[in-house]
Structure formats: C-alpha cells, structure tokens
Design brief:
single chain, mainly alpha, 32 helices, disordered N terminus
C-alpha cells in the first residue's frame, strides 16, 4: 500500500574531466576496480573538485529542524500483497481471541479466511503481472494485443467473522471486481460500527476509501487520508503503517494537482515517518519543482523547510537515491537564480548554497555565499581553501586544508555515498577526501612520509602505493612501516587483490597487511630475502625461503652441476608461476594491485602530463627519486620476473647434459613461457633444444615442427 515513485534508474555514469579545472562537477569517484579512486591521476582537477553530496545524508543533517512524525511500520522482506494478507489473518486471530471465541472455532474461521486471503492475493499478483505485460510495447504484430486479464476467482466469505472483518473483506472483493461503489459502501459500514467493534479495520477502511477517490475526487481523497491519521492517533490498530502511507499518498495527490510545494512538504513528512520510499518520491517532486514556473520556485524558496530540503537535493547533484547519474548543471543554476529572485538574503544553509555555486562553476556566487556562511562551517572553510588555490594564494589554502584534514569530524552527516564495482552502496567519509587532498599537497612539497600517511588514511591505496614504491627509499619505507604498521595480531583470510576489495582498503588491518606485503616484494626484488620474509603474509614466507635456498644452491660452485641445475630450475619455476606474488610491483609496471590482469597509465606520467596548476606539480627531487627507484625492477618492464625465470632456466639447462630428456623438458617448458608473446626471445631455447637434444623425443618433435612441441605444464604451487 506504500506510495513510491514510479521510476528507479540504476545506471552508473562516470564523467572523466580533463584539461580545465573549471569543469568541477564532472570529476567523480570511479565506478570499478579498473578505474580506481585516485588523486594523483589528475591532481589539479581532484584538488579543485568538491565532494559529491547525498540527499539521504543531507536530510539526516536536517532532521532536528524537520517535523517529527510518529507513524512508522517496519516492512518485512517480500511483497506488500503478501504482507497485507498475513497481517489480515494474524489480526483476525487476535480479534477472535479477544472475543473469547472457542479455540477450535478460531482455528476453523482462520483457516477459511486464510484460504480466501490466499485466493485474493493470487488474483491480485496475477493482475499486477498482467498490467505490467499490457503496458509493454508489442514485440511483433502477433502480440500486439494485450494478454487476457485473469478472471476473478470464486470466493466465499467464511461464517463467524467479526463484523469489521466481514464488511472489510466484502469491500475488498468488490474493489477487485471493479465495483467501486459497493466497495466504498462496505468500508463505510466498517466505520459506522460502534468504536469497540472496529478496532482492527477502521484505518484500513478509511485508507482504501481514500484510494478510490484519487482520480475521481482528489479533495475527498485528501480528506479520507487525513481521517486515517486521526483514527491512528485515536488508538485504532495500524500495523501496516497506513497513517504513514496516507501522508505519501496525499502528497502524491497534491503533486498531481500541481501543488508542488505542498507535495514536497508532504513528502518531507512522509520521509520523517520513516518510509524509505519517500526519498524516491521526494526526488520526483523536487525535480518537478525545478522545472516549474519561476513563481512556484520562489514560493518554495520562501518556505524555509522546503528551501532547505531543495538545497539538500541540489547539493546532492539531484541524484536519484539509487543512481549515481548527476543532474544537469542547469538545475544548480536554476536554484541559485531562484534564491536570488526570491530575495533570500542570508539563508541558514549559505555554505551549502556556496557548495552548489562552486560545483556549478559559478565562482563569484561561491565567494558571495561562502562569505555569508558561519565562520565555523567546515564546508565554507573547505570551499574557501579551493577558492584561494584558484586565486593563486597557495600558502593560505594549504594551511586550511592541512588543518581540516587533521581535525575533520568522524560524523555520519559527513559521509558521501558512492556505488562501488560490486553494485553496493558504500559510505566514504569526507575526511578521506581531505586527507587525499593533503596527501597531494604534501607530495608536491616534498613531504613524502606525510604524503604517504595521508593517502593511506584517506584510503587512496594506489596513490599511497606509488609513494611507497616509487618515491620513498627502501630504508624510509621500512622505518615508516615498522613505526606505524606492525603485523596485524591475526592474519587476514587473504591479502586481497585490489579488485576483491572494490578499490577500497578500509581497515587498519588491511592497510597494514597490504603495505607490509608491498614492502616485502620490494625487498625481494632487491635480493634482501631475509629482511623481506617477516613482511610477507604467512603463506608466502615459505615460498620465499624455498626460492632463496634454490638460488643459493644454483650459485654455489662447490656443488655438483646436477645440484646447481636443480636449484636454478626450481627457482625459475617459482619465479615464473609465483613471481607476481613474490616480487611483483604494486603499481607500474606489474600492477599487482589489479591482480596483474590490467595495467593503468604510469602514475608519474599522469602527474607530469596533467595540466598542473594550483601548486601540485612534482618537484625535481621527486623525479630523481622515481628514476632512482625504477632500477629496482630488472629488466624495467612489466612481468620482469618472467624474464628472470627464463634466464634462470637457461642457466639451469646450461649445467645439464646434452641429449637428456630432462634437459629437453627444461628447454621446452621455458621456451613455451616466451613462445606465445615473445617468439624472438624464445628462439634461443628452440635452437638449443634441437641442437643439444635432437635425439630426444621432444627435440626430434621440435625439429619436425620447426618450433616447440606442445607440452602440458603443471605449475608448482605452495
């Protein structure tokens, strides 16, 4: 029976804005693991961008000044039809027990009523399905006519029902048959019963009478919806929350009558009554307001409660609560102009209006409204910093951002909601955005440890990984990790790949494990195996120990050629099949953060190629550091550990005898590592296979095929 909006868009639109920092409203959180949240990809635009709002969160902030409404019913999972029928049967049992009806008689009456209710529910659901199909356009001339509607079933009202239940169900049957006058007459009889005989069905009867007048006589419908609330206030049963629903339906009537401001007031009350569908309806009503005549919009602007809610809506970019699609920026301009035309001089939400102006690109209006805001407003201070950046007053702006980043409240009214790649809505504190901004500014000023710390706590993992892996020295990173991110007391279930956490490393335990794992792989690339081991997750420590032992055995000239070859070949296979986990880079070139499946543009390249304004260009010493750390990856290309694996396999084969099946197997498997994508580099393995092992089965087959024979490879795993 709930009144909800009749649309629910679920598309996700990602607007990537490049070039001018004037395009502020387009920069948004990315929509998936392959387009992660970053600050360093376009730092000047990210810094200029103001965070998105959320209507639900803005309304939460306004709750103390919105009207209190006490009607509320927690709706269980499942359809309204089933819930209504279940409640009807349960309340019948309650009524019979209250009348001291014989228990055996109670069971018989309830059973008969349950059958009636099930029959009506089935018919109602079939009718809804038929209407949905009938509303669809025909797919071909053959199905151009709507399907046949379901026939009304044969029903029987059981004997022994209390009068209010008998008259109500009589009206319900007539209603479903399309006999509206008979339905109203039956429900009116419920309301004519003595007060002590209509406790359970008074609100139901009044509500349904109101529903029947929606289009025929809206004024009468409004009167009946008011009657529902009067009955609920008088103590009549309302387990379905019909008093709350009546507010929403009444608002819908007003909206249909073009009484838009009155409708918005009604939906505000409906929202305060606790019905989640009210948020959708409120969106619909406000979007209609913003498209209405200027006189109607000015009426809304002069109504303080409506003004504040519309401002909250526009702050949230006019998003449907289940959609990330931003509204046209013209709506922001419309509301700003409306406030001017209505003569709203110093609104209580001046900071929010400044926020709207800034996001629309109207910097002069943003300056004006932010000056009218309370000096204690965090939004106004944040906007002030951004305006100072744009005016070239960097030092003062940096001081504001630093102060806000360190002291921003952990307050649920400051959460921003975004939909991640899993399709779930996630709440992101605004403090994260500020910490990200402070991280960008710290990096641009050569404060590398402070940049890393801010980006980590702001949950910008890829940006933090860039600083940790490509800017800090190994010594600096080790000291920072040891001082700030000790081993979690209990290991996580796994060190998730970036896509498994949907781009969001949210807890201190996740940050600690992933940062330590990054350091472990970095130390491994440098050959510091003993130092690296304790930073690895437990499952990889033994593999690193085996790899290091195999390398030592392969390089020990005091051992036999066979022992050395076995060690080198074992190390080669570990490097080839587990190299990403043991020595892959978190960001470029290997992109362990993306599971190694995808590669993004080099982060430093993004920083240097961007239109760097607002004091965020990298310093010369950052370039020197990035260049110096790059030599840790040998060779300096993606999947470098595969090259190392091939070289180790070549060294192993060189220690093995000619015309040996084992030698042929090593040359074949290692050659196949390269054959698919790098045939030129695989060629030396093919030629050695034919030359050195031509009398073996694999060698002879290679000579016949003029390339490697197919061979089933079974990678070693921990």
């Amino acid at each position: 029976m709930s009144c909800s909006a009749d649309f629910c868009n679920r598309g996700l639109i990602r607007l990537l804005v490049g070039g001018s920092v004037g395009l502020l409203a387009g920069v948004a959180a990315a929509c998936g693991p392959w387009f992660p949240n970053q600050m360093l990809d376009q730092p000047e635009i990210r810094l200029a961008h103001m965070r998105e709002g959320s209507l639900a969160i803005e309304l939460k902030r306004l709750e103390p000044v919105l009207p209190s409404v006490f009607y509320h019913a927690v709706r269980p999972a499942g359809g309204t039809v089933q819930w209504t029928a279940l409640t009807d049967v349960e309340e019948l049992r309650d009524a019979l027990k209250a009348a001291r009806t014989d228990p055996a008689r109670v069971d018989a009456i309830v059973t008969g009523y349950q059958e009636l209710r099930d029959t009506l529910s089935s018919y109602q659901l079939k009718t809804e399905q038929w209407k949905a199909l009938a509303d669809q356009p025909p797919f071909s001339p053959a199905d151009s006519r709507p399907p046949t509607p379901p026939e009304f079933p044969v029903v029987r009202i059981p004997q022994g029902l209390p009068e209010e239940f008998a008259r109500y169900i009589e009206g319900a049957i007539a209603y479903h048959r399309g006999q509206i006058d008979l339905a109203r007459a039956a429900w009116q009889k419920v309301l004519e019963l003595p007060a002590n005989q209509r406790h359970f069905r008074s609100t139901w009867a009044a509500f349904m009478i109101g529903r029947t007048y929606l289009t025929e006589n809206p004024v009468t419908a409004i009167q009946w919806f008011g009657r529902v609330r009067q009955l609920a206030d008088s103590g009549y049963a309302d387990r379905l929350g019909l008093a709350s629903d009546s507010i929403g339906w009444q608002a819908r009537v007003e909206l249909d009558r073009s009484n838009t401001v009155t409708a918005i007031e009604g939906y505000i009350r409906h929202y305060q009554a606790g019905d989640p569908t009210a948020l959708v309806s409120l969106n619909r009503a406000i979007s209609r307001l913003l498209a209405a005549d200027p006189a109607v919009r000015c009426e809304a602007a002069r109504n303080l409660r409506v003004q504040r809610v519309v401002t909250a809506y526009v702050v949230a970019a006019g998003r449907h609560p289940y959609d990330e699609t931003p509204v046209a920026s013209t709506w922001q301009s419309i509301w700003l102009n409306t406030l001017e035309e209505a003569g709203v001089a110093a609104p209580v939400d001046a900071d929010r209006i400044a926020w709207i102006a800034y996001r629309s690109g109207d910097l002069a209006a943003a300056e004006k409204w932010s000056a009218l805001a309370s000096p204690d407003s965090l939004i106004a201070q944040w906007l002030r910093a951004k305006l100072l950046f744009r005016a070239g007053q960097t030092a003062e702006a940096v001081a504001i951002i630093a102060r806000l980043a360190r002291s921003f409240p952990e307050d649920p009214t400051w959460l921003a909601v975004r939909r991640d790649s899993s399709g779930k809505d996630r709440a992101f504190p605004s403090a994260d955005k500020l910490l990200g901004e402070w991280g960008v500014l710290s990096l641009a000023r050569g404060q590398y440890l402070e940049a890393l710390d801010s980006l980590l706590h702001g949950h910008y993992w890829l940006d933090a990984a860039y600083v940790a892996e490509r800017v800090l020295t190994p010594e600096e990173l080790s000291a920072y990790v040891d001082a700030n991110w000790p081993q979690p007391p209990a290991p996580l279930s796994s060190c998730e790949a970036y896509e498994e956490t949907h781009g969001y490393v949210s807890t201190d335990e996740q940050i600690a494990e992933r940062l330590r794992y990054l350091l472990a792989r970095r130390l491994t690339r440098m050959g510091h195996y003993t130092q690296a081991t304790p930073y690895f997750p437990a499952r990889w420590q033994s593999r690193l120990t085996n790899y290091a032992a195999d390398l030592r055995a392969g390089g020990d000239t005091a051992r036999s050629a066979a022992v050395r070859a076995a060690g080198l070949w074992s190390a080669a296979r570990i490097a080839r099949y587990e190299g990403l986990e043991l020595m892959g880079t978190e960001v470029e070139p290997d992109w362990f953060a993306l599971g190694g499946y995808y590669a993004l543009t080099d982060i430093y390249t993004l920083r240097t190629n961007a239109v760097l304004q607002m004091g965020v260009a990298p310093l010369r010493k950052e370039q020197i550091r990035v260049t110096r750390q790059a030599v840790e990856v040998k060779p300096a290309r993606r999947f470098h550990y595969r090259d190392q694996a091939a070289d180790l396999a070549w060294r192993a084969a060189s220690l093995m005898p000619d015309q040996s099946p084992e030698t042929a197997a090593v040359l074949t498997e290692a050659g196949l590592w390269l054959a698919g994508k790098e045939p030129d580099r695989a060629d030396r393995f093919y030629k050695a296979l034919v030359r050195r092992c031509g009398h073996t089965e694999l060698g002879a087959e290679a000579e016949r095929l003029r390339w490697f024979p197919k061979k089933e490879i079974t990678p070693q795993k921990p």
